[in-house]
Every structure is written in C-alpha cells, then in structure tokens.
Amino acid sequence: MGITREKSAAARGYSVVGGRDGDGRRLSFGVSALYLGLYIHYGFFAFLPLWLKSTGASPEEIGILLAIPLILRLLTVAPFSAFVGRRGWVRNAIAYTSLASAATVLLLLGEPEHAGRIAIVICFAIVWDQIPVLTDAYAVMAVRSRSLDFGRLRVWGSIAVVLSNAAAGWAIGVAGIKMLPLMIAALLLAPAMVAFLLPSDRTLTATDTVAGGRWRDLIGDRGLILAMIAASLVMGSHGVLTSFGAIQWEAQGISTTMIGLLQALAVAAEIGAFWFGAKLLGHRDPRLLIVAGAIAGAARWGIMATSPSLPVLVVGQLLNGITATGTILGIMLVIAQRVPMHLSATAQGMNAVLLGAVLAVATAGSGLLWSYGLSVAYLAMAMLALFGALCAWPRRTGSENRQPIDAPSVSGVKE
Q: Is the pTM of this model over 0.90?
C-alpha cells in the first residue's frame, strides 16, 4: 500500500509504541493499580444502608439518599469530564476528586441529622461519580499511547470487588458498623495515591498526532452514538435481575449462601472475560463485542424467565462474562477506536450519562414489569437486549472504509 505502519497508525490516532517496553509495563501496572484502588471500597459501601439505619434513618430516607447519586450523575458527569478532558487534567481530577470524596465521607462520623445526611450525600455524589468515568478515560488514553490491553487493565476492578466483598463483612464485624465511614474514607484515598504516581494525560495525548475535533463532532459520529446506545440498552437489560434476582432465587428455595455464590460466580466470569476478551477480539470491529453481549443477554433473560433449576442458573450467571463484560469492553474499545485522545473524557462522560439514564429507567421500570409476572419482566429485558444488538451491528460508512487496513488493533493486542 506504500503506507508505513507508523503513518497508518497516526492516521487513525494510535501510537505504535509497544505495550511490552519499560514505559508500557509501568503504565500498565499503574492503570491496573488505579482500577484496583477505584473499586476496593465497593464491598464496604454495600453496608452503607445498614449504617444509615443504625443512625436513625428511616427506610424512606435511605431510598432517597441512594437515589440522589443516580440523578446527579446525569447532570454533572458529562460537563465535568469534558471540562477536565479538554484541558488535560484527567489524572489530576482523579486524584483531587478522590481526596474530596474521602473528606466528604468522614463528615458522616459526626452522625448528622436528616438535612446533614442529604447535604453530605449530594456533595459526595458530585465529586465521586466523576472518578470511574475519568479512570476509564485515562485507561483508554493509556491503551492508545502504549498499545495496552484494556481488558487486562480493567479486570483489576472486578478483582477488587471480589476482595472487597470478601473483606467487608469481616472488617465490620471486628471494628463495628459505626466505623464504616472511616473505613470507606481510608479506601477512597487509594485512587489518589496511585494517580499522583501516573504520567499526566498531557504526556499520553502527546502521542496522538491527530488531535483535531470538538465535542460536537462526537455527537455527529453516528457509529459512536449507536454503539453507546446499544451498550446502554444491554446494560440496562440487567435491571430485572439486579432488582429481583435474589428475590426470585429465594422464592425457588435457594439458600442465601448459594445466592451469594451465584453472584460471586457472575463476577468471576467477568474476570475471565476481561482477561481474554481483547485478545479474542483481535483486529475485529469492537462493536461485535456489544452484539455478542446483547445476544447472550437475550439468551440469559430467556433462561431466567423459566425459573430455571440451579445447574441452569450457574450457566446463566457465567453468561455475565459476555452480557456485562463483553459490553463494557466493547464500548471502551469503540471509544478508543473512534475518538481523539483529547476527547476521551468527553466521550466517557457522554457514555456515562446515557448509561445512567437507561439504567435508571430500566431499574425503575423493572418493578412495574415484575408486577405482570416473571416471564413478562425477563422477556421485556430480552427484547431490550436484542434492540441493543441491532444498534450495535457494524455498519460501514464511506469514511470507515477509507481507513487504512494495516493499522494496529484497537485493543493493543497483537495477533
């Protein structure tokens, strides 16, 4: 073709620096540690409703407090991520919002009254909800600047959730539920400790030779927007399982211990899928991962609609590696493929808002669907997932067909 690999990669906005050099290994280790630090508090956070109850909060208030972040996420994430992304402040924003989140949680140690609890939750939601979005944005920049494997970076977030869930109950049993805010605050410092050791995103984006484009151009990218919509629909289709899965299984006579194991199995499937997913994808269109997640989701919800036996439930939970992880990995790689690095945070913010909106509607609607019966609820989720497959199905446009075919894989994985 007469085009060098380096020029071809530059034409698509990728660096061809190998992920196995010294800088690549250090960056891979750093981003993996960032994901580990980001999710290590999740198991402890699950006990927050219990802490709120111990301080006198009513069930109605607890519901309102837990809903506040879902609403604020739709209003604050996209503007903030776009602001720091265009200025090259993603790494610094991760660090400082992490510190602010820890400081905010510490205020709960004073056991404030109703108004104080609402004010603290509002402040916490505004600062903490930025961190996962900005971490994904930083990881995508790392993937492109050093040809790293996104799945093997992100997998440490799932590992952190497993470790956190395993440790939380024991730690609370030793220290007592009253110390929960202190434990969460200490763990929330982890992303800041790692972020300050990472290279700035200005350093990463310096390798992007195609730095043009504005955030409005993202909205005009039909393939990108359809992929975001598809990923949101597939993730939203988990709404019934998330809300009523444990209730359904308990009604079938499955013990709480086994329910916990089933949930752990789903996370274990995520770990395997993150580790091998990008390598299996190779040079193929990452939208195919979202399609696979959607089709697996439709099959999974069809299985759940039949009140399956325990062995079949195990198979259904293993499908989580495709329905959730395949979808997450797919949309991250789509963003890496189609978005200039300096707009990564903007794209992540857009994706987070769209996902949050669909999840909120699907979760709220799951209660209404459940009232019509188990089969109706899950079949509705299956249809939602299949609609996601239609949105994600790769469609070639003229500009995509003109892209060089010898550019490296977007996943950073060599075949």
A: no
